[in-house]
């Protein structure tokens, strides 16, 4: 069983490297961000893009070698070494150019986080595990011999990689946070009013005035949850990234009834919940 698990790591890492190479070699948006990233700081903006493309080429070659037979020990060891190098680079990037885009698995500008570093570390460990399978069989044999277990393991590992990839948060994490806000309603206690009217109403509220200095974005998203229209802004509270969720009366204009909750972006915990002081009294 361990041999089969180890053999599957070459497939996993190979697919990840090919995906990453596609971004580096084919997506112009990702290359445009490299000059201002930590790679640009390290190599200079003029050499950053060629180095980025070269890395994509290395990833593509190594990814293909990992996916196709045979399966010598050198391939997963090389992948593990490359991933270990990513760990070092991402650690450096987080300190040398905080807020710069990773450029790893998506062209979307996504700052390096602890999850990005953990993902690279996980791939390094997977490469070492894959080396155990060297000489013991190709990954396809493991899939044929134990299809259900192989598919389950690969799906679990892919899910872990996605969870550790901030680039994909918009596809799964933000919808889950929105669903959580709807189900748990941190402000608990058919609208004909346009969004602009709701925004004007909340801006006239005491709740808005209490947190206005904490907001860092315009309206990020909104939805109806009768009798409220929920309006979300990005915010920072005590140095922590958060989401400000305003509950605005959906059926009538009543700024004094507007409420707001600040929800921690990392944990989902409610950091602060406020109403209009005049209405609360």
Automatic annotation (TrEMBL):
UniProt keyword terms in alphabetical order: Membrane, Transmembrane, Transmembrane helix
Its name, as the record gives it, is Methylamine utilisation protein MauE domain-containing protein
**Residue ranges of the Methylamine utilisation protein MauE domain?**
6-131
Question: What domain of life?
Answer: Bacteria
Q: What subcellular compartments does it reside in?
A: Membrane
Topology relative to the membrane: Multi-pass membrane protein
Q: Mostly located where?
A: membrane
Provenance organism: Plantactinospora alkalitolerans
What transmembrane ranges does the database entry give? 6-23, 120-140, 152-174
